[in-house]
Structure to design on (142 residues):
C-alpha cells in the first residue's frame, strides 16, 4: 500500500525560524509554502530526496491558532515530530482497504493537502501512537 515516506510533519512555534534552521543546517530547499485553513496550519515543504516512488519532504507546521490540531499538540507535547505521511497510489482505495481493520479514520474521504495532494489521516491511538497521513501526490506532467 505504501510507496514511500512522502514526508515527516514537524510541529513548531515559529515557521520562519525553523525553515532557516533546516536550510542552514541541512542545506534543504523550500519547494512550497501554504496556509491551509482547513488543517489550521501555515506550512512549508522542504525537499529531501527523489526516489523511485516519488519525492520525499520535511513538512514544517506552525498552527494558525491554539485550538487547531497542531496548536493543541504543541501545548501538550512541545515542538517535535507530529505525523508521518506515507505516499499511496490512491487515497480513496487505501481508506477502503484500511477501514474494517480496527483503525479509526479521522478522514473518511480525502481532503486537500500540500502541493495539490489528496490526503487523509488515521487516528494515532490506533497506530501505536503515530498520527498517520496517507498522501496521493498529483500526477506529474512529463
Ligand atoms: N501524534 C500522536 N498522538 C497524538 C497526536 C499526534 N500528532 N495528536 C494528539 N495525539 C494524542 C494526544 O496526546 C491524546 O492522547 P492522550 O489522551 O493519551 O493524552 C489524544 O491523541 C487526543 O488528543 P487531543 O489533544 O485531545 O486532540 P484531539 O483528539 O482533538 O485531536 C487528532 C487529535 C489526532 C484527532 C487531531 O490532531 C487530528 O484530527 N489530526 C489530523 C489533522 C492534522 O493533524 N492536521 C495538521 C497537519 C496537516 C498536514 O499535514 O497537511
Ligand atoms: Co502532512
Amino acid at each position: 500500500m505504501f510507496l514511500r515516506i512522502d514526508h515527516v510533519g514537524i510541529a513548531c512555534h515559529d515557521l520562519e525560524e525553523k525553515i532557516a534552521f533546516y536550510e542552514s543546517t541541512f542545506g534543504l530547499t523550500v519547494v512550497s509554502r501554504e496556509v491551509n485553513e482547513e488543517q489550521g496550519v501555515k506550512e512549508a515543504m522542504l525537499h529531501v530526496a527523489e526516489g523511485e516512488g516519488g519525492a520525499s519532504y520535511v513538512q514544517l507546521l506552525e498552527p494558525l491558532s491554539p485550538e487547531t490540531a497542531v496548536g493543541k499538540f504543541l501545548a501538550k507535547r512541545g515542538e517535535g515530530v507530529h505525523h508521518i505521511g506515507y505516499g499511496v497510489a490512491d487515497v480513496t482505495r487505501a481508506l477502503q482497504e484500511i477501514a474494517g481493520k480496527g483503525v479509526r479514520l479521522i478522514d473518511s474521504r480525502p481532503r486537500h493537502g500540500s502541493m495539490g495532494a489528496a490526503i487523509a489521516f488515521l487516528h494515532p491511538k490506533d497506530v501505536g501512537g503515530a498520527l498517520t497521513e496517507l498522501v496521493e501526490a498529483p500526477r506529474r506532467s512529463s
